[in-house]
Write a structure and sequence with these properties.
Layout (H helix, E strand, L loop, with lengths): L7 H30 L6 H8 L13 H19 L10 H18 L1 H12 L3 H4 L2 H28 L8 H13 L13 H16 L2
Helix pairs in contact: 1-2, 1-3, 1-5, 3-5, 3-7, 4-5, 4-7, 4-8, 4-9, 7-8, 8-9
């Protein structure tokens, strides 16, 4: 047996790791439950049961269900931003950049179904701005705005270098592209006939048609 009585730092480090692991389980449970049944319909008892802890233990990590919502929202958006927008390479061809973002957006959604559904529900909630602290809500809006700005900028560059008939403003085109990608989970089924890659290719074809590429 290892004696940690004389090594308080080691004992504290062990407790810290266990606490972090519990917090991660709670966040994973929140993402799954908020994504499948919504924030308002999820109880603290359900969160505790899904995470394998006592309901009272939740308050060692989060002040309230709203604070779990805050952490889950930030987790979902920051992960999406890192794995989608974070892969953009400004040094490559603008059409290749847009194709990468469209494909990465779709593949991310389809490979992270629970996370994406939770994010969709949270973003669609009318009460989100009232449930999140002002600073957190501003951070959420910043992340969403950065992605929209990036796609808008790329589409603007594409339109400036392409000849042909008039197109809607770049911002409107970017909103249409992101809305289309974001709604893929409204119909996609993992056991369906189309693979994730086939869905991504089909959506990229649609974007190409929209932008006359």
């Amino acid at each position: 047996m290892t004696d940690t009585a004389g090594h308080p730092a080691a004992a504290l480090d062990g407790r810290t790791r266990r606490g972090e692991a519990t917090r991660e389980r709670l966040l994973a449970a929140a993402i799954q439950l908020f994504g499948s049944q919504g924030f308002e319909s999820t109880s603290m008892k359900e969160l505790a049961a899904a995470a394998g802890v006592r309901a009272s233990a939740i308050y060692n990590h989060f002040e309230s269900k709203e604070s779990i919502l805050t952490a889950a929202t930030i987790r979902a958006l920051e992960d999406f931003h890192a794995q989608v927008a974070g892969t953009d390479d400004p040094g490559t061809d603008v059409c290749d950049r847009l194709e990468n973002l469209v494909r990465r957006h779709l593949i991310y959604q389809l490979e992270h179904l629970q996370l994406a559904r939770a994010n969709d529900l949270l973003m669609a909630a009318d009460a989100l701005r009232y449930l999140l602290p002002d600073a957190v809500h501003a951070h959420v809006r910043e992340l969403l705005g950065k992605h929209l700005d990036l796609v808008t900028s790329i589409i603007d560059q594409i339109q400036r270098t392409r000849s042909g008939g008039p197109l809607p403003p770049p911002r409107l085109c970017a909103l249409a592209v992101l809305t289309m990608c974001g709604r893929v989970l409204s119909w996609y089924r993992p056991a369906g006939a189309r693979s994730k890659e086939q869905v991504a290719s089909a959506y990229w074809n649609l974007v190409q048609g929209m932008l006359h590429l």
